[in-house]
């Protein structure tokens, strides 16, 4: 008897599925393409046959016949920070739930040619829509100059542009400042993100707007770079400013600030209260546990996927509301 274990296994095709399910190949094709005119029991029989045979859908082949690839493109110009990386993961999960796959391309936001090449790459793959994780204004500027023949949605663009979906960044910043002001703080500083990030700009705007709405003096703004190191380095400026509270534009900078204040002999929230932004998974385990603003990245991704595959007018989609998560890093000033 010859050993056939190393022989290549024949690819299971539509003909095999049709034979096992007792239907025509056209019926199998209709099930594959979610055609409504197939009886539920027939769909169930066809899908059971696919499972039994180990049939795998070939999106490229299906696209040739239906002009639908069941694939969405994701273009990321910065995927290293928590927000963008979390959104990319959420987009993949939301697309999968909708019966789609994701093809990703990455490009430096400062390199216009790279952004154009990434878009061309995704379009050439036959994606049915593109979600751009675009935290920088220069990425939006490149997109505005392109003619793209599939729906395009941008995330992390602070809602700028007609196709932008976002968590309301300014509203989130106002929640953070309100939590500090409601605790009795009147001298509040802002540890801001990098100036070239759209969301950092919106959070700084929200910080200033909430202070003004409450009749409080404009607080000092200390620029960081999203890293815990920049939060740690901001301690000297915070101490010299005489503030009793700080709104940090992300949780990593808040972490560095907490560490630096402790090293300087100051307690949080006894001497200085701190609020962050993002509610990263570790925020509940900082010492003290960090009061922060939560962004619902899963809802943002769900809306983005629905928009690109369903043709939802982006103008009709309101920003996702942020949520304040109150923990132990805020107390009344001494």
UniProtKB/TrEMBL annotation:
One of its GO terms (molecular function) is transcription cis-regulatory region binding. Signal peptide: none annotated. The lineage of its organism: Bacteria, Bacillati, Actinomycetota, Actinomycetes, Micrococcales. CDD domains: HTH_LacI, PBP1_LacI. Residues 12-66 form the HTH lacI-type domain. It comes from the Bacteria. It holds the Pfam family LacI. InterPro entries: HTH_LacI, LacI/GalR-like_sensor, Lambda_DNA-bd_dom_sf, Peripla_BP_I. This is LacI family transcriptional regulator. PANTHER family: HTH-TYPE TRANSCRIPTIONAL REGULATOR GALS (PTHR30146:SF109), LACI-RELATED TRANSCRIPTIONAL REPRESSOR (PTHR30146). Keywords: DNA-binding, Transcription, Transcription regulation.
């Amino acid at each position: 008897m010859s050993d056939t274990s190393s022989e290549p296994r024949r690819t299971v095709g539509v003909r095999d599925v049709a034979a096992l399910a007792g239907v025509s190949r056209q019926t199998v094709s209709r099930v594959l393409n979610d055609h409504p005119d197939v009886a539920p029991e027939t769909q169930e029989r066809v899908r059971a046959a696919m499972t039994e045979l180990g049939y795998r859908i070939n999106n490229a082949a299906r696209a040739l016949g239906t002009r639908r690839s069941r694939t969405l493109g994701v273009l990321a110009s910065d995927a290293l920070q928590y927000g963008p990386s979390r959104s990319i993961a959420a987009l993949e999960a939301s697309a999968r739930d909708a019966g789609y796959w994701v093809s990703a391309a990455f490009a430096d936001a400062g390199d216009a040619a790279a952004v154009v090449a990434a878009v061309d790459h995704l379009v050439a793959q036959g994606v049915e829509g593109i979600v751009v994780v675009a935290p920088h204004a220069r990425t939006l500027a490149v997109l505005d100059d392109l003619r793209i023949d599939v729906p395009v949605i941008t995330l992390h663009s602070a809602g700028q542009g007609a196709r932008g979906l976002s968590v309301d960044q300014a509203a989130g910043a106002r929640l953070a400042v309100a939590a500090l002001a409601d605790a009795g703080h009147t001298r509040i500083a802002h540890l801001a993100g990098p100036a070239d990030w759209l969301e950092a700009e919106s959070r700084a705007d929200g910080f200033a707007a909430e202070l003004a709405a409450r009749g409080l003096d404009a607080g000092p703004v200390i620029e960081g770079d999203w890293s815990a190191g920049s939060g740690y380095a901001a301690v000297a400026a915070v101490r010299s400013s005489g503030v009793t509270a700080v709104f940090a534009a992300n949780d990593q900078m808040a972490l560095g600030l907490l560490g630096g204040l402790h090293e300087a002999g100051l307690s949080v929230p006894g001497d200085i209260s701190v609020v962050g932004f993002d509610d990263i998974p570790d925020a509940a385990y900082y010492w003290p546990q960090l009061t922060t603003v939560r962004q619902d990245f899963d809802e943002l991704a769900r809306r983005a996927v629905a928009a690109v595959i369903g043709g939802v007018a982006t103008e009709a989609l309101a920003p996702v509301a942020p949520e304040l998560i109150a923990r132990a890093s805020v107390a009344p000033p001494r």
